[in-house]
Design a protein that fits this description.
100 residues; Hypothetical Protein Aq_1857, Chain: A; four-stranded mixed β-sheet; 7 strands; 17% helix; ATAP_core_dom; HesB-like_dom_sf; Iron-sulfur cluster assembly protein
Length: 100
């Protein structure tokens, strides 16, 4: 694939690799990034591990295989996935320029 719709920050790469290594994620699974409908027309983002299928585009970043449903790509272009670890919050965060 010529374009990487989603960018994963260095902190998120470390956490994804940690999860893949320590949580028994099968080697044939990829990081799946997608969208879900939210209340009042809002859209949310989802992240998890899954096998690729024919309806996906796939690419890799920092040796992490990534899959995205082709129907979701246009909504994800420019998305940045980060990992936040603070005293009161820990987890993946999603930032898309222009979505305030």
């Amino acid at each position: 694939m010529d374009i990487e719709p989603v960018n994963i920050t260095a902190k998120a790469v470390i956490e994804v690799k940690n999860i893949m290594d320590n949580k028994g994620i099968p080697k044939d699974y990829a990081l799946r990034i997608g969208i879900k409908g939210g209340g009042c027309g809002a859209m949310g983002y989802v992240i998890g591990f899954d096998k690729a299928n024919d309806a996906d585009i796939s690419y890799s970043q920092e040796n992490i295989p990534i899959v995205i449903d082709k129907k979701h790509v246009m909504y994800l272009i420019g998305l940045e996935v980060d990992f936040i670890e603070e005293s009161d919050a820990r987890g993946f965060s999603f930032n898309k320029p222009g979505n305030n």
